[in-house]
Specification:
This protein has about 160 residues and is α+β, with helices and mostly antiparallel strands. The chain has four helices and six strands; from the N terminus they run ββααββαββα. The protein is globular.
Length: about 160
């Protein structure tokens, strides 16, 4: 599947920027590149390196979790990303067809060094101001990541 970029030029004044990637880890570098360039271009008023790094890691964790847990082994489906920002909030919406995430089924992470996985949700919640997930009535699953920008502007 070819990545579908929408609104990837700085002179395009849309407030919502979209990317569709194949549900394959080989697409993660392209996804990160899209995210970083879109934030730098569209959210330049809050595009600190720390904010970019935080959002980049949270998005990667969310998408890798979708790839690892939302489909049966060997199945890959498209993942739709939408980024919007204004002076108050940067929002990333991730949508996909598959098994909905059930936070209650995720045990708290073990932070004593004895485990090498199970940190995705914890990392997302540490880096972002809001992490929501669910499933729409049409079966489309979603994860929403939000970062408040007013605190970033004050730093």
């Amino acid at each position: 599947m070819e990545n579908k970029h929408h609104s990837d030029r700085c002179d395009d004044r849309q407030t919502l920027h979209r990317l569709t990637i194949a549900g394959d880890t080989s697409q993660l570098a392209n996804m990160r590149q899209w995210l970083v360039s879109t934030i730098r271009c569209r959210c330049e008023f809050a595009a600190s390196e720390r904010l970019i790094s935080d959002v980049e890691l949270a998005l990667q964790e969310a998408v890798v979790n979708v790839m690892a847990h939302a489909w049966e082994a060997g199945v890959q489906r498209p993942i739709n990303l939408a980024l919007s920002c204004d002076r108050a909030t940067l929002r990333l919406d991730i949508s996909y067809q598959g098994i909905a995430f059930e936070e209650s089924a995720v045990p708290p992470p073990i932070l004593d060094g004895s485990s090498d996985h199970g940190f995705g949700l914890f990392i997302m919640k540490q880096l972002m101001d809001e992490v929501r997930h669910g499933q729409h009535q049409d079966g489309q699953c979603f994860i929403r990541l939000e970062k408040k920008l007013n605190e970033q502007l004050e730093r």
